[in-house]
Amino acid sequence: MSQIVNMRYPKELLDRIDKFKQDKGFQTRTQAIIYLLQYALEQSEKDKNK
Questions:
Q1: pTM of the full predicted structure?
Q2: Structure confidence by residue, pLDDT tens digits, 5-41
Q3: I want to staple 21 with a disulfide (CB 3.0 to 4.6 A). Which of 7, 16, 31, 32 is the partner?
Q4: In this structure, what DSSP letter does residue 28 have?
């Protein structure tokens, strides 16, 4: 189940996300943001379990 969340991002961060989206072949900015959040959370969990 998904939920809608409205968020504001600094322009510079959106530019970086858009570049990441293009470089990795994501079709939408939302896909790129979800990937980045999931990746960061996984890395955080790995660091916590060291």
A1: 0.86
A2: 999 999 999 999 999 999 999 999 999 999 999 999 9
A3: 32
A4: S
Asked whether the CA dihedral 16, 44, 34, 24 is positive or negative, the reply is positive
4 domain-assigned = no
Domain count, the chain: 1
Q: How far is CA 19 from the centre of its chain?
A: 12
- Name the region of 25 (left: φ>0; alpha: ψ -120 to 50; beta: rest): left
- Per the structure, the complete domain to which residue 30 belongs is given by 11-48
Looking at this protein, which amino acid is placed at residue 1? M
Q: Name 11's Cβ contacts closer than 8 Å, sequence gap at least 6.
A: none
